[in-house]
Amino acid sequence: MSYTGYLLAANFRHTVILLILTILLALQAQDSFNTSNQNPFLPYILPITIITAGCAISGSGFEKDLQADIRQAAGEDFSLKADDYIVHVPMAEIYIFDLMGIKAENRFYERSKNVFLANLSSQIIVQILKYTTDKLRPDGDDRESFPSNHTNIAFTNASILFHEYKNSNSFIAYSGFAFATATGALRILNNKHWTGDVLAGAGIGMLCADLVYRFEPFKRSGNTDLNDKLIGIIPDFDVGTYGIKITAVF
After folding, report:
1. Is 237 left (phi over 0), alpha (psi -120 to 50) or beta?
2. Tens digits of per-residue pLDDT, 219-242?
3. Which of 20, 75, 91, 142 could form a disulfide with 157 if both were Cys (CB 3.0 to 4.6 A apart)?
4. Element (H, E) at 72
5. What whole-number distance in Å separates Cα of residue 197 and Cα of residue 150?
């Protein structure tokens, strides 16, 4: 195959993959809108499909060839560390827009509880997989490549953002997926993760968030206005670190 033909084939593969990811994310959001009128298990098919796809191509020749094609197209010296920052945008949005007067689906306590449970469950899965799969990163830095932690955090919180704002502002609800997708793409472009790592991280994040909103564990009943005004606990998840922030109003 000629060099020109090789590049055309590579670009075609890239285009197909991006289209598939875009369609999957759009369908995920659309299914979330209609959950109440559908089979309750239907919304989980897409995250599971994304996880399965990530696992299927992980370590394959296709994944390695794709990474080589992407790096060649972007340039071997490509490095843009924005992914270390935009990964946190969806979580920030969960709280910022409510403070601006655009009401979220749940009050502060319920929202924070959902953020904590979704992130905690997805992080447990991600960290276990990282240390059991022992997959080498594309840049050879370490053997904690699968799945992508940055992508997982971004998609977990993007899914929470969607559930919280889908009924009040669709633009805000969808916006988290844009930042999450950008985070995953940059992890690949920066040669920190393979495509399979990113797909698995995204799927795990969406699935954990969807399950939390489906079953709503530890849901509080009654009037929570007073407690919400007096004290709040905000989960603080950074890449590789976990904690809480406590706020109080007197």
Report:
1. beta
2. 765 544 444 544 444 555 555 555
3. 91
4. helix 61-74
5. 10
Q: Which residues contact 170 (CB under 8 A, 6 or more apart)?
A: none
Torsion-angle region of 11 (φ positive above 0: left; ψ -120 to 50: alpha; else: beta):
alpha
State the pTM of this model: 0.80
- Longest CA–CA span in the chain (Å) reads 71
Distance CA 225, CA 222 (A): 9
The helix or strand, by DSSP H or E, that contains position 212, with its residue range, turns out to be helix 195-215
With a cut of 90, say whether residue 32 has pLDDT above it: no
Q: What is the pLDDT of residues 38-67, one digit of tens each?
A: 566 777 888 998 999 999 999 999 999 999
Domain ranges of the chain: 3-104+122-221
